[in-house]
Amino acid sequence: MKLIIAVVQGEDAQRTVHALTDKGISSTRVSSTGGFLQQGNVTLLIGIEETQVATALEIIRENCHERSRYLTPVPPLAEPGEFLLAYPVEVQVGGATVFVVPVDSLEKI
Ligand code: 2BA
User: Where are the alpha helices (DSSP H) in 33-87?
Assistant: First the structure.
């Protein structure tokens, strides 16, 4: 048994969950926030038999796309008489950040 932990973008989450469900793969959707951009994303928890891991990864690959996000850095303090502009910096995010970890057992109690 494995646990897939997939950090995906909000726009991709619903489609990905539907595609997993269509293949009989259960998932739990957790709201999360990226540490770098401090923007909302979604973490999917997927408990899965090892034989189905490749199918789940393929579904995530098909449904999660790379996008540009913009980060506006906080400008350093200006000296009197100086005027500093903060320009947005483009950052590429996604498809998905995926961890596959071993699971000792899955108990439904
Ligand atoms: P964030 O931490 O908000 O990162 C968003 C994007 O910013 C990243 O996209 C990457 O392109 C860039 N980025 C992140 N840290 C950076 C840094 N120190 N310097 C420069 N650029 C940086 P992705 O790599 O696609 O990651 C998307 C989201 O996946 C991340 O959102 C975070 O929530 C999660 N993630 C990525 N790597 C992770 C890891 N090793 N452990 C846990 N979560 C991770």
Answer: 53-63
Kindly state if the Cβ of 78 falls inside 6 Å of ligand 1.
no
Sorted by sequence, the CB contacts under 8 Å of residue 8 that are 6+ apart come out as 16, 41, 42, 43, 44, 60, 64, 94, 95, 96
**What would the CATH number be for the domain defined by 2-66+94-102?**
3.30.70.120
Asked if residue 25 has its Cβ within 6 Å of ligand 1, the reply is no
* 109/90 Cα distance (integer angstroms): 46
Q: What is the pLDDT of residues 2-31, one digit of tens each?
A: 999 999 999 999 999 999 999 999 999 999
**pTM, two decimal places:** 0.91
Q: What is the DSSP letter of 103?
A: -
Residue spans of the domains in the chain: they are 2-66+94-102
Nearest CA among 96, 102, 11 for reference residue 57: 96
Query: How far apart, in whole angstroms, are the C-alpha atoms of residue 7 and residue 90?
Result: 20
- The pair of structure tokens assigned to 66 is 């790379």
